[in-house]
Specification:
There is one protein chain. The chain has two helices and 24 strands. It is an alpha/beta fold. It folds into two domains: 91 residues, 3-Layer(aba) Sandwich (Rossmann fold), CATH 3.40.50.20; 114 residues, Hexapeptide repeat proteins (UDP N-Acetylglucosamine Acyltransferase, domain 1). The strands form four sheets. An eight-stranded mixed β-sheet has the order 6-9-12-15-18-21-23-24, with helices on one face. Strands 7-10-13-16-19-22 form a six-stranded parallel β-sheet, with no helix packed on it. Helix 1 links the parallel strand 1 and strand 2. The longest helix is centred in the first third of the chain and has 15 residues. The chain is globular and about 50 Å long. The chain starts with a strand and ends with a strand.
Length: 214
């Protein structure tokens, strides 16, 4: 399967590395052929041996089987994913061979699971999610579409994370807690109580400081 990576920035290069590592390990037939990016300064540049082939609008003119939208900003990743979906694109999943994923874990299309990430049994991971480097998603978690669990963040058992939410670098969510949709948990925060939709929560224990617009 030939895959285009949408986004040639830092996150896009991480996704490229994941797909290349998977091919090298013999565990995948998903092969990245290049990047798409709307920054004209990146056109024809090469990262990890893969060229930037054009803009996102040019996807239909480049032979491929699927895409991965590799953009770190959650609302932007959702917008571009929905746009490409409406054009009939298929979405590949980027699963690093050094990730640990339980046998019954469900992972939605277009999700990225980075090196060292752990998703334990019973977890349900939505579409277009980022499980970043060395994060931990414990048993029976539900992580909503287009959410991002940042490097080193950890979710206890039976946690619910809403659509589009960011769990920041090294943050923790105690077992059974709920974090609403399009919320932000700041770096290093510890969630001991439920966090409502569209709220930014920081500190240990985490407390709300602001409401966010989508």
């Amino acid at each position: 399967m030939k895959v285009l990576i949408v986004g040639a920035g830092g996150h896009g290069q991480v996704v490229a590395d994941i797909l290349l590592a998977r091919v090298k390990s013999g565990g995948s037939d998903i092969y990245p052929i290049g990047f798409l990016d709307d920054d004209p300064a990146l056109l024809a540049r090469t990262f990890l041996g893969l060229p930037v082939l054009g803009s996102v609008a040019q996807a239909s003119s480049i032979p491929h089987d699927a895409v991965v939208v590799a953009i770190g900003d959650n609302p932007t990743r959702q917008r571009i994913s929905l746009q490409l979906e409406s054009q009939g694109e298929r979405f590949a999943t980027a699963l690093h061979p050094a990730a640990v994923v339980g046998s019954d874990v469900e992972i939605g299309a277009g999700t990225m699971v980075c090196a060292g990430a752990v998703a334990n049994p019973g977890a349900r991971i939505g579409r277009g999610v980022i499980l970043n480097t060395a994060c931990s998603v414990d048993h029976h978690n539900h992580v909503g579409d287009y959410a991002h669990v940042a490097p080193g963040a950890y979710l206890g058992g039976d946690v619910r994370v809403g659509e589009g939410t960011l769990i920041g670098l090294g943050a923790g969510v105690l077992p059974g807690r709920r974090v609403g949709a399009w919320a932000t948990v700041g770096a290093g925060a510890t969630v001991t109580r439920d966090v409502p939709d569209r709220v930014t929560a920081v500190g240990a224990p985490a407390r709300a400081i602001a409401k966010e617009g989508k």
